[in-house]
Amino acid sequence: MSTKETKGYVHGFTADEQDRLYRQARFTEHRVHDRLPFWRSRALLEVGCGVGAQTEILLRHFPELHVTGVDASEENLAIARERLARVPWAPGRYELRLGDAGRLRDATDTYDSAFLCWVLEHVADPALVLSEVRRVLRVGSPIVCTEVQNATFFLQPYSPHTLAYFGAFNDYQLELGGDPFVGAKLGNLLQRVGFTDIVTEVRTIHLDNRAPGERAEFLAYWTELLLSGAPGLLAAGKVSAETVEGMKQELSVVAHDPDAVFFYAFVQARARVG
């Protein structure tokens, strides 16, 4: 049994963060949910379902699907239940429960698909989680993991305060037991625990003068994402108020620069139970 533990969540569990997770899911939906292999699935396990933002999208995209969501935060699950109860296509099609993804209480061969999105970056032992997911999946079941690769981040104009802040952000996530670079490791992790037919796709977000509208939208989204970690980083003494203020000023400059460039890449891995 693994002795690794996650010591916290870099973004915190505030109401503002819960709302941000919903906006993030909608904003990235076309990139994350493109051509997911769940059309024949009926019983999907969503690990780290959080506030139910991805759950809602899965239920909308796949009308025959039932989703079982597992999360370690009762605060997030309460919001998920409240919001999904208002979604017209969701009643009777989901179950949300508090649990440890490394110790799933389900029997072997319970589900026919699995979905993990922005969760392994916050897990101390991703291999243990993926091993448990494999145990509860039936033979032939697809799994899709979408994860960050924070080393790819780049801005033009050059923004030293922002890069210093993001470096501290990543270091703090590592200190808390997560991994902001886990996206690049998905192939190894899935192979290590016995998945087959593993395919990884690097999904690049490269926005410049060719797409000024989308660039502006993404810069606003990314600014919100970065600032969501500021209270925790400041409280832990990982960054100074001057660094945060400098980052805000730099991001404003980038947002109004006619030659601004935003670059980031994440990784989506797909595999099957052999």
SSE order and pairing:
Elements: H1 15-27, H2 29-32, E1 43-47, H3 53-61, E2 66-71, H4 74-84, E3 94-98, E4 113-117, H5 126-136, E5 142-148, E6 154-156, H6 160-175, H7 186-192, E7 195-207, H8 212-228, H9 230-235, H10 241-256, E8 261-273
Parallel strand pairs: 1-2, 1-4, 2-3, 4-5
Antiparallel strand pairs: 5-8, 6-8, 7-8
Overall morphology: globular
User: Per DSSP, what share of the residues sits in E-state strands of 2 or more residues?
Assistant: 15-25%
CATH fold name, please?
A: Rossmann fold
Distance between the termini: 24 Å
* CATH class bucket: Alpha Beta
What is the tally of beta strands? Answer: 8
Quick structural overview:
The chain has a single domain (15-273), classed as 3-Layer(aba) Sandwich (Rossmann fold). Helix content is 40%, strand content 21%.
Could you explain the architecture of this structure?
- With 274 residues, the chain is an alpha/beta fold.
- The protein has one domain (15-273): Vaccinia Virus protein VP39 (Rossmann fold, 3-Layer(aba) Sandwich).
- Helices cover 40% and strands 21% of the residues.
- The chain has ten helices and eight strands.
- Strands 1, 2, 3, 4, 5, 6, 7 and 8 form an eight-stranded mixed sheet that branches.
- Helix 5 links the parallel strand 4 (113-117) and strand 5 (142-148).
- Helix 1 (15-27) runs antiparallel to helix 8 (212-228).
- The protein is globular and about 50 Å long.
- The two termini are 24 Å apart.
- 39% of the residues are buried.
- The model has no long low-confidence stretch (mean pLDDT 94).
